[in-house]
């Protein structure tokens, strides 16, 4: 599938500034992949993206290599670079990693009060999006909730780890056919976790989070398996019919 709409990507050129680097290009592309601008199975055009961002072919290829190491892209010999399509096993592994990291963050918070403004904002954005019927927006707010939860650890390394994990998760969420059914049940659960942390009940918050992630893992894996036909194990080639899927909304 050829990348489409790269003209809009030119809007991101200003983010590069005068010190354009492969890492900055990778940041832009990582965000675009996470938002669904380039859906799973999309072939990324060097000419289109390089021209839109105004970067050299070598810089873009290095950015592709960085994102391939993060498991967001895959390079196929003589075919090009594609946004990765996950297998159901990948979804399970993502949730195992999330449970280990997110629950450990809550467990290690120490004494209250906690800095919860960003977490509360994510909860509010999700509820606002739900009232507007914006279910991709609910999905985005939910990802922000978990990103801000991990940010409570005040660890740049943990933030970087979870940025990649949550970006991978978005690869699965973008192909699920009924985002409302998938995300609506967790609006109230996000607020329950926030309320427990506001009350200083760290253990309660961790228990709520662990059950939340276990339930979400079951629901997302089942919905994803129904949405795409992928084999168990690493899925590095777009499955039949995936390339014909229309691009997702940039809202995520």
Question: What's the SSE blueprint?
Answer:
Blueprint: H1 6-9, H2 22-34, E1 43-44, H3 46-53, H4 57-69, E2 73-76, E3 80-83, H5 88-107, H6 117-131, H7 135-151, H8 156-173, H9 179-183, H10 185-198, H11 202-227
Antiparallel strand pairs: 1-3, 2-3
Low-pLDDT segments:
230-252
Structural class by helix and strand composition: mainly alpha
Q: What series of H and E elements makes up the topology?
A: HHEHHEEHHHHHHH
Order of strands across the widest beta sheet? 1-3-2
Radius of gyration, in Å, reads: 18 Å
Structural description of this entry:
With 252 residues, the chain is mostly helical. It has eleven helices and three strands; from the N terminus they run ααβααββααααααα. It has helices at residues 6-9, 22-34, 46-53, 57-69, 88-107, 117-131, 135-151, 156-173, 179-183, 185-198, 202-227, and strands at residues 43-44, 73-76, 80-83. The protein has a three-stranded antiparallel sheet. A hairpin with a 3-residue loop joins strand 2 (73-76) and strand 3. Helix 2 (22-34) crosses helix 8. The protein is globular. Mean pLDDT is 85; it is low at 230-252.
Note the main attributes of this structure.
single chain; 252 residues; mainly alpha; three-stranded antiparallel sheet; 11 helices; 3 strands; 61% helix; 4% strand; globular; disordered C terminus
């Amino acid at each position: 599938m050829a990348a489409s709409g790269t003209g809009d990507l030119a809007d991101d050129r200003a983010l590069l500034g005068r010190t354009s680097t492969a890492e900055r290009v990778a940041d832009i592309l990582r965000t675009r992949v996470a938002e669904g601008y380039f859906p799973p199975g999309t072939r990324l055009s060097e000419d289109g993206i390089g021209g839109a961002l105004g970067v050299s072919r070598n810089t873009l290829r290095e950015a592709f290599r960085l994102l391939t190491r993060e498991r967001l892209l895959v390079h196929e010999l003589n075919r090009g670079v594609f946004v990765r399509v996950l297998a159901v096993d990948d979804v399970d592994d993502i949730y195992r990693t999330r449970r280990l990291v997110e629950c450990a963050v809550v467990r290690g918070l120490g004494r209250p009060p906690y800095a919860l403004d960003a977490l509360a904002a994510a909860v509010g954005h999700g509820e606002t999006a739900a009232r507007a019927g914006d279910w991709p927006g609910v999905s985005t707010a939910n990802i922000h909730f978990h990103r801000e939860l991990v940010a409570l650890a005040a660890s740049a390394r943990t933030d970087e780890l979870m940025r990649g994990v949550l970006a991978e998760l978005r690869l699965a969420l973008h192909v699920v056919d009924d985002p409302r059914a998938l995300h609506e049940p967790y609006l109230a659960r996000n607020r329950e976790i926030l309320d427990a942390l506001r009350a200083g009940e760290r253990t309660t918050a961790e228990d709520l989070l662990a059950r939340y992630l276990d339930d979400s893992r079951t629901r997302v894996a089942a919905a994803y398996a129904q949405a795409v036909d992928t084999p168990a194990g690493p899925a590095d080639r777009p499955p039949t019919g995936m390339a014909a899927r229309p691009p997702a909304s940039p809202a995520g």
